[in-house]
Design brief:
homodimer; alpha/beta; seven-stranded parallel β-sheet
């Protein structure tokens, strides 16, 4: 019997979940739920599309609802709402607000007798997991996270808000020299500027002051002023042709020492190189949906994160098979 | 209240556990148990040393017993024996026999109402975990494991058994060209020879036939005949001076595709670079002892592997703190 998945929201992430569920041996998608007019939404695999308001009436037909909305406006209310009715999984990624989101979703899941997993993806998600394992194994040590090379949606949006900018794509790029120092185990203190550079590809409106746009970008507080930033002006055609993908990735390091006097050094590196950030995130969401279903079948309720989930529950095979093949 | 740890066996691994427990904020070591005469064993931190037969009488004073014997002769009987009396953790690493070992230890732990974790370390252990997460997230893909650069104890021992060899150290080294192909995402089929080379440093007995020794090494089935092997003859002084450490490490890759037509490629790489193989393994054992204690406190019994353990149980901080700091 397949795990029956509902998909709430149908942007890049929703499409990624649709494909990930199709690729999973033990899941099937039931349908997409949207706030748009259903007849205007065409799904990749011909999945039926329902109005969001129809979701509650389908609670019996869905084992896990995967929420594919945004962290800024959708998930803070959608996840708690749906968590009363469904086992849910979301990718809430506003790091500072995760504890608050957790509490709300936990309460909703408990009140509905359901199981929820929040903040699934790669950061938060697989990166968090690797920070945790690294710290647990090497208590005397240092964490490092590098992102990229990849497209930062938030930084691209910040550029688009500058007057005279028609479109933009921003890449976050780790600095090789910093990576080498971390891999060498020297545990350096690194500033934001030493860790990442930022490269921007900008399409200017006709007649816009490019000098002024560039100045606005490189001096923008929080987003760019603490980094070495390069700005390239290109045509709209070039942007679509050369920068249409959504690659990302990065590295989590734990470097530390063991021995009574810290005499032995160790470096743990976890690295992702992703062609498609949303599709990879969706694949983590699908694996977490499997775990949510199984935990719920065990009678567990309330909210979890990937830090709480017995790893084997994410994998389609049985614990016996996993011990035989992977240990 | 600290978690009280017993250390069974006092070789490289036992000393590593002693140091790891010392470095842990929430554990204390109670003593070492040995089959040698206790008065002949000097511990690094002055821990008391007891006869192995005295362990049962100290069951009330020890929360978790960490077993530091060998997988060939010690653990197959020691772990089941002690698992009736203690929560235990071992690093049993004879991959093919793990299912059988699991069954025996599980039965013992259940009969004693105790919790056990077997095959903790990095391979099996953290590497197994990364194979599992990789497969769960990228079901359409390929696994690769590379070991090294590092000292292989088994291969060093095999060389030492050759007549005329006084001592030897064997390094397993991943082939750069193979790593590049895997990192490039092309999912190659690789033979043993294409993945690793073997480099041997050998101290010959006086008057031994070096030509003959080299021939015996490079043609040895299972161990060397399937690899490109280099043999260097060096003096005993050089061996001790330049090859006294026990470094190791390696990489686990999962490379795979997402999308309805497998159009997007992803590479997950988990890499360890370890100055001391036994001390790092010991650090994993110590973290697993924390998890074993907590699972036991929850009333759980029976055998587990790292694939079954909720990750947060390995970390000294609370789930709330971990959510706040690591997600």
């Amino acid at each position: 019997m397949s795990i029956r998945i509902g998909i709430s929201g149908y942007g890049n992430l929703g499409r990624g979940v649709e494909a990930a569920v199709k690729n999973a041996p033990d899941m099937e998608a039931v349908g997409v739920f949207t706030r748009r007019a259903p007849e205007t939404v065409k799904t990749l695999t011909g999945l039926p599309v329902y109005k969001m308001e129809d979701a509650p009436s389908m609670a019996e037909k869905i084992d896990v609802m995967i929420l594919c909305g945004g962290s800024a406006k959708d998930l803070p209310h959608q996840t708690p709402e749906l968590a009363r009715l469904f086992n849910v999984v979301d990718s809430f990624d506003t790091h500072a607000k995760i504890p608050e989101h957790f509490e709300k979703v936990n309460e909703a899941s408990l009140s509905g007798g359901k199981l929820s997993i929040i903040s699934a993806g790669w950061d938060p998600g697989l990166f968090s997991l690797n920070r945790m394992y690294g710290q647990a194994v090497l208590p005397n040590g240092q964490d490092y996270t590098f992102w990229g090379k990849g497209v930062s949606q938030g930084h691209s949006d910040a550029i688009r808000r500058i007057p005279g900018v028609k479109d933009a794509r921003q890449y976050t790029i780790p600095v090789e020299a910093a990576l080498e120092r971390v891999r060498g185990g020297e545990q350096p203190e690194l500033t934001a500027r030493e860790k990442h550079t930022r490269e921007c590809f900008v399409v200017a409106e006709e007649g816009a002051d490019k000098k002024q746009i560039e100045e606005s970008i490189v001096t923008m507080p929080n987003y760019f002023s603490d980094y070495d930033t390069t700005v390239h002006f290109i045509s709209e055609e070039e942007l679509l042709r050369d920068h249409g993908g959504i690659p990302h990735g990065g590295m989590v390091f734990r470097t530390g020492t063991t021995g009574l006097h810290g005499e032995n050094h160790h470096v743990i590196e976890y690295k992702l190189k992703l062609d498609s950030n949303p599709e990879f995130t969706s694949s983590v969401l699908a694996a977490c949906a499997r775990a949510a279903f199984r935990l719920s079948q065990q009678g567990q309720t309330g909210c979890r994160t990937i830090l709480d989930i017995p790893p084997a529950l994410l994998h389609p095979e049985s614990p016996e098979e996993l011990r035989r093949k992977l240990l």
